[in-house]
Design brief:
Pyrv_kinase-like_dom_sf, lyase activity, 2-methylisocitrate lyase-like PEP mutase family enzyme, ICL/PEPM, about 250 residues, globular, two-stranded antiparallel sheet, Pyrv/PenolPyrv_kinase-like_dom, alpha/beta
Amino acid sequence: MSAKFQSFAALHVPGDPVILFNVWDAGSARVAERAGAKAIATGSASVSTAHGFDDAEALPLELALANARRTVGAVALPVSVDFEGGYAVDPDAVAANVEKLAATGAIGCNFEDQVVASNGTATRVMHSAAEQSSRIAAIRWTVGPNFFLNARTDIFLIAPGDTHDAAMADAAIERGKAYADAGASGFFVPGLADLALLESVAKAVPLPVNFMAFPGAPEAKAVAETGVARISHGPFPHMAALKAFEDAARAAFS
């Protein structure tokens, strides 16, 4: 297992980012591995939708852990799991849940700073940087030094793209530095597509920065040139797969 931790971390090279084409179950993980993936990462929205649930921790924790365990067991590659907000607010409770995730064989996870409401919906409100740093620190203390904790900030997801500006980038940088000090391994900025702002974040935050690709986003080469170290694809592979399935089903039924 230690070799998988090390190999996954080593894939994060600024300017030469690892590409993660996000999966949702053991079968899609095997397809990604067969297609040439260097590592596997799940997307929470994709996993939830595939199991008939909404995103934002509506998928029961035990089912999320079981899916992670099956995905890890299906491939030889390191597997990182999108674990949303950790299914808790209290730092110790979050850390205990991430410890359960690590026990599935996952070598890392995404961990977001958006508050998830008790009814299982995203609130579009974020934990303060201090609160989230405490949660990250508790996770790090519990799971040890090797687990790849990809700290996600939702600053750029909550705000429309045309409002993204230098002030938001500065706020993200402040969080990235705080999360690094708390023990994060990477910094994820989904929703940010402005290359100049992305470059400023990648240069200022002392962690490998993760960009999320989406339809209409800048191409991977341009993104790589900003200094990011990871490009993931979020829910979009699963959405494309469902669209292809629906189109084929409609053709069959017509």
